[in-house]
Amino acid sequence: MAWDEWEQVKAQVAERHTARLQLNGLPGEGGRADPSGGGGGAGTLRHKGGPWTKAAGTADGLQTSTITAKVDLRKAHDGISSGLAGLSSLGSLKSVLTSWDERLGRLREECSSLEPKLRQAAVDFAEVDAEVAERTKAVVVPGARRGE
Length: 148
Fold this sequence. Notes:
Helix content is about 65%, strand content about 0%. It has four helices and no strands.
């Protein structure tokens, strides 16, 4: 077998065994990505801002609930100093109040920081997805028609 023939045979074998990439990353039949979109995806790249927006809403809700929790915690400790004066547990209760007050404050600050970042992530991903969608329109797939 001549060298050129050997190279041709290798190229043909490589062509038959090349794994195909599917945008949704799901394998098609036989463990390969299915170029027809049958690998489990709808064949259309989509982004939903819902999870990011929902997470931002949760962070916002946590800010409110931590403020409420701090107020409730302080109210629960109102008047306790006079009722427990002279008892060693008073120091422990004050320590617990201070500790939880600080923790809830840090949690509120973290949520306050996260909330706008999560909302921005939803916007950023939507913009990137729109740009990618425009770019993919230029890709020609042999044997496939657009919109299928």
